[in-house]
Amino acid sequence: MSLVKRVLPLKLSKVGAVLFMANTYIDDHHKAKYECRKWVIRSIRKPRRTKQEIACGFEYKVKVQVTNLVEGITYSKGNWNEKILSAYPEYIKTFDLSGDMPHDIWTTELGAVKSEIKYIKTEIEALKIAFIEDSESSIELEITEYELFLKALDNRLKKIKG
Question: Tell me: the pLDDT tens digits for 64-74?
Answer without folding.
Answer: 999 999 999 99
